[in-house]
From TrEMBL:
Matching PROSITE patterns: PROFILIN
Protein name in the entry: Uncharacterized protein
GO terms, molecular function: actin binding
Source lineage: Bacteria, Bacillati, Bacillota, Clostridia, Eubacteriales
Length: 272
């Protein structure tokens, strides 16, 4: 579905319908339109609003500092952090001034450092470069730990959704009735949405790990992580093929969870 079609119809849809259509978006609109749509969904569902923001980020959207302030309180903090990080390459010093006092200061400091921007005048400068490096690396680890926790939540939710889809797939193969087919279809749509959330969370965690590994103070033994999980079904496959793929993806997510937990333990040890 194109963004133009989605945005044209969103006011006529129930919020649940608008949320279900997010995964079918092929492109994204202007930041103003996206924020408008997120605001409509957020009136009833913060998780739905967060899902639309995640989809927009996946499709490459960038926001101004002023636009980002409109997302505060209606989307998850983790997704807002990702939006700030993704948009930072187009920020000016004024964008950072606008965000100051609205978002975590370490997000602003990270954006300023990576893109050579002047910090807001009210943020205290650290004169000692070595101390700054040490504090920065600790902040980067804390950020990665937040991403790890969020990735674990998303992967666990995806696993549960896959289990439900697997059960409905078996029921449909046994009964081969209209209602069971309808229930299976609904469970697959739900699982796809959770899989996309898991993909986004794993990608964000990988990005944070990459930042950490640039720091001379950090040595990690376990750094490889699944960053993408291919979507695993479409309307043309057979029932058995769908069921086998559900089991395969369930195992892959299980491996990703174990990898995240190993890296998470290492990161915590660095702060000990």
């Amino acid at each position: 579905m194109t963004w133009d079609t989605y945005y044209e119809k969103i006011n006529d849809w129930a919020v649940s319908t608008a949320i279900n259509r997010i995964s079918s978006l092929e492109n994204i609109g202007s930041p103003d339109e996206v924020i408008d749509a997120i605001g409509l969904i957020a009136l009833e569902s913060e998780s739905g609003a967060t899902r639309l923001l995640n989809k927009a980020l996946q499709l490459g959207i960038r926001f101004s500092g002023e636009a980002l302030t409109e997302l505060i309180g209606i989307c998850s903090d983790e997704s807002l952090r990702r939006a700030v990080k993704q948009s930072a390459d187009r920020f000016t010093a004024q964008d950072l001034e606008t965000l100051y006092g609205c978002v975590d200061e370490k997000w602003i400091a990270e954006a300023a450092k990576q893109h050579h921007l002047r910090l807001p005048k009210d943020m205290e400068d650290i004169d000692d470069e070595e101390t700054e490096d040490q504090e920065t690396y600790q902040e980067e680890i804390l950020t990665a730990l937040e991403s790890a926790s969020y990735a674990l939540e998303c992967c666990a939710a995806a696993q549960e959704a896959l289990c439900r889809s697997g059960n409905m797939s078996i029921l449909d193969m046994i009964s081969n009735r209209f209602l069971s087919s309808l229930a299976k279809s609904a469970s697959l749509i739900e699982a796809e949405q959770y899989m996309e959330d898991a993909q986004d969370a794993l990608t964000a965690f990988n990005e944070d790990l990459h930042v950490i590994l640039q720091n001379k103070y950090v040595k990690l033994h376990a750094v490889r992580l699944y960053s993408e999980i291919d979507l695993w079904f479409n309307s043309g496959v057979t029932d058995w093929f769908v069921h086998l793929n559900i089991n395969r993806m369930h195992k892959r997510i299980g491996k990703a969870i174990k990898q995240i937990e190993v890296i998470q333990r290492e990161l915590k040890q660095l702060l000990a």
